[in-house]
Structure formats: structure tokens, C-alpha cells
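Chapter review: from sequence to fold.
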Amino acid sequence: MLHKAVNERNWSLPGGRVEIAEEAKESIKREFLEELNVDIAVNRLVWIAENFFEYNGIDIHELVLYFSVSSNHHPYAINSIPFYEWKENG
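The C-alpha cell string follows.
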């Protein structure tokens, strides 16, 4: 699953930001509920990526955590998809 805003040129995985003192696994569960209304189980961390790029004139240092997740609570939910994105301005 990829998305991009109409005025942006790059595609990205859906994601969100962790809140202060929120664990990554809880952030993923919250984001899936907020964005897709899907209750998920977070299975395990499968990949970590680090990216450096410019966005709207701001230098960004991005750490991306990809988790395997699953759900039986939604007819369009895909079992075991990687998901999660956390960004910090550099």
C-alpha cells in the first residue's frame, strides 16, 4: 500500500508519528485505527531503514521501523503486512 499527496512527487508507505512516551507497537495500532479503522496485532519488527532527504526545504533524518502486523477484524485487511514510519526533523 502506497500513498502520496496530490502536490507531492514522491510516493511513500502509510505511516505516522509516535507520541511522546508512546511505544512504537502502540503507535502502529493507534495509526491503523485512526487511518483505516482496522484493529491489528503487531507481530514483530522485520526491518529498520535510515534515510536522509530534504522535504519542503527542511533537512530530514528519518528512521523507519517496519513491523509485521495482522488483522482478522476487517474484510480488506491483509495478513502480515510491514508498516511503520517514524520521522524526526534533523
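Two observations follow directly from the output. Confidence is low (pLDDT under 50) at residues 80-86. The longest strand covers residues 41-55.
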